[in-house]
């Protein structure tokens, strides 16, 4: 993979389109789950596999993406990824049974899992360090706007049409980048490495990340005392430890864990993990508060969160330019300060908090996150030598998935525990029974936000140690750039 002087904007545009469709699809189905349950006559635990299974496939394939990106060209990976995604979309839309729907959903996930790491690697290879922030800012726009539109559009369609329409809307949009990829996409990676896949590492990775993701994502619904939860987490943790130890011994590891010797990459990785956990407080707790306690419809719930997501999307390119000029620290500290303050304000919610007040606080919170997420991640990746880009992006994407699952399970557990104790206290105090449920749940939500404030504060303290990395270009990388330039001119 090579860093070049003139970025291939055509290639990047095609990859952007594919990534947008893949990310957009992740949040599209959540609101449709009740309709799917009614259609197929299944329980919530079964329907949840459409979400959990998607996450599991991501957790298994994203760590392996470093191997695929090093071994195969960007054109080959993109065409295979979009073909799997499109086929999965078609199967899901026509599914006569839940089993077919789940199979289609898992095929979608197998394609989508490769898109994010692929696009990030192409961006890192295509842009020099001094312009990389701006480029990654536009990448951040795709990351934010796509999942933001998903729930709002899904709510409208499910309320007015059949849930299958969701897939038939996605299918033609997915076929466009696939056809562009087949006829227009060129290879940016001229020198693919002849490396072999360590199958045992893939097994350990699948058990490790898959077990942790499934265990923590199931904890919110099954409860921590369920054997499925703690056994899968235990298997995941043991497998993950064995996976890391094996990677440190291999000459060609599936994931190069030695990149953590670069301090700024390690720091950016930790900040991203902590911030992801804190982000899930609003993503999971706010819909519960808005729909269950406030009684706001799913569509209006999605619309309430839409301005914040759009602000974050619009800010991404601006943040990228500011990063190129001033570095990550100048953006991360005020951004995380906004996250801490707004998360604390969410811990003070009442039964009478207005719709517009919630929207404003949430929008400011998303503004803060936009100043942090992509600059911190890019700052860490800029530390790495070029050959380590696939490993850095794969590790970042995987850890975001895992930390998101852990954060959501942790916060839901806190909410449920506090809700139960608050309900008991309210019952003893003689509160009217009809008011106990909402008041107790509100107490649980506020407590979870309060704890999430300290999680965000941890990220803020870590941001004080961010430095702008100065990575000298090696002679080998200079030769790679020269080779790429010659290939382009010829």
Automatic annotation (TrEMBL):
Membrane-spanning ranges: 9-29, 49-69, 76-103, 109-129, 136-157, 163-185, 197-216, 228-245, 265-290, 302-323, 330-349, 355-377, 447-466
Pfam assignment, any one: MFS_1
Compartmental location: Cell membrane
Gene Ontology MF term list: transmembrane transporter activity
Key words of the record: Cell membrane, Membrane, Transmembrane, Transmembrane helix, Transport
Xref: InterPro entries: EmrB-like (IPR004638), MFS (IPR011701), MFS_dom (IPR020846), MFS_trans_sf (IPR036259)
Keyword presence, Transport: yes
Membrane topology per record: Multi-pass membrane protein
Residues annotated as domain Major facilitator superfamily (MFS) profile: 11-471
CC per GO annotation: plasma membrane
Gene3D superfamilies cross-referenced by the UniProt entry: MFS general substrate transporter like domains (1.20.1250.20), Multidrug resistance protein D (1.20.1720.10)
Superkingdom classification of source: Bacteria
PANTHER family: MAJOR FACILITATOR SUPERFAMILY MULTIDRUG TRANSPORTER MFSC (PTHR42718:SF9)
Family membership: Belongs to the major facilitator superfamily. EmrB family.
Protein name (Swiss-Prot/TrEMBL): MFS transporter
């Amino acid at each position: 993979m090579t860093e070049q002087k003139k970025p291939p904007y055509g290639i990047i545009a095609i990859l952007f389109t594919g990534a947008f469709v893949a990310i957009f699809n992740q949040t599209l189905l959540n609101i449709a789950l009740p309709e799917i349950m009614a259609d197929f006559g299944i329980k919530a635990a079964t329907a949840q596999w459409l979400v959990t299974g998607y996450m599991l496939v991501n957790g298994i394939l994203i760590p392996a993406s470093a191997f695929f990106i090093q071994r195969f060209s960007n054109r080959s990976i993109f065409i295979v990824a979009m073909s799997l995604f499109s086929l999965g979309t078609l199967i899901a839309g026509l599914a006569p049974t839940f089993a077919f729907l789940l199979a289609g959903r898992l095929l979608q996930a197998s394609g989508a899992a490769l898109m994010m790491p692929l696009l990030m690697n192409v961006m890192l290879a295509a842009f020099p360090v001094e312009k990389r922030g701006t480029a990654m800012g536009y990448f951040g726009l795709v990351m934010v706007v796509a999942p933001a539109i998903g729930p709002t559009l899904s709510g409208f369609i499910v309320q007015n049409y059949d849930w299958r329409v969701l897939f038939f809307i996605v299918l033609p949009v997915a076929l466009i980048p696939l056809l562009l990829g087949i006829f227009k996409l060129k290879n940016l990676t001229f020198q693919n490495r002849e490396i072999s896949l360590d199958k045992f590492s893939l097994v350990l990775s699948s058990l490790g990340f898959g077990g942790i993701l499934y265990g923590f994502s199931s904890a919110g619904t099954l409860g921590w005392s369920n054997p499925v939860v703690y056994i899968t987490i235990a298997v995941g943790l043991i497998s993950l430890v064995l996976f890391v130890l094996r990677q440190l011994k291999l000459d060609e590891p599936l994931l190069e864990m030695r990149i953590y010797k670069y301090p700024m990459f390690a720091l950016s990785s930790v900040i991203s993990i902590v911030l992801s956990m804190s982000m899930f407080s609003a993503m999971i707790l706010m819909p519960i508060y808005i729909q269950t306690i406030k009684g706001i419809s799913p569509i209006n719930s999605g619309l309430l969160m839409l301005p914040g997501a759009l602000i974050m999307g619009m800010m991404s390119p601006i943040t990228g330019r500011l990063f190129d000029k001033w570095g990550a620290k100048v953006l991360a500290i005020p951004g995380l300060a906004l996250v801490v303050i707004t998360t604390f304000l969410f811990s003070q919610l009442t039964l009478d908090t207005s719709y517009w007040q919630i929207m404003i606080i949430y929008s400011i919170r998303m503004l803060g996150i936009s100043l942090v997420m992509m600059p911190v991640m890019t700052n860490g990746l800029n530390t790495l030598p070029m050959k380590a880009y696939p490993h850095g992006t794969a590790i970042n994407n995987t850890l975001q998935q895992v930390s998101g699952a852990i954060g959501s399970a942790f916060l839901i557990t806190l909410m449920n525990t506090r809700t139960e104790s608050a309900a008991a206290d309210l019952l003893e105090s003689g509160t009217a029974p009809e008011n106990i449920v909402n008041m107790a749940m509100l107490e649980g939500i506020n407590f979870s936000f309060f704890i999430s404030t300290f999680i965000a504060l941890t990220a803020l303290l870590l941001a004080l140690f961010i430095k702008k990395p100065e990575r000298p270009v090696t002679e080998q990388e200079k030769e790679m750039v020269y080779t790429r330039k010659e290939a382009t001119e010829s």
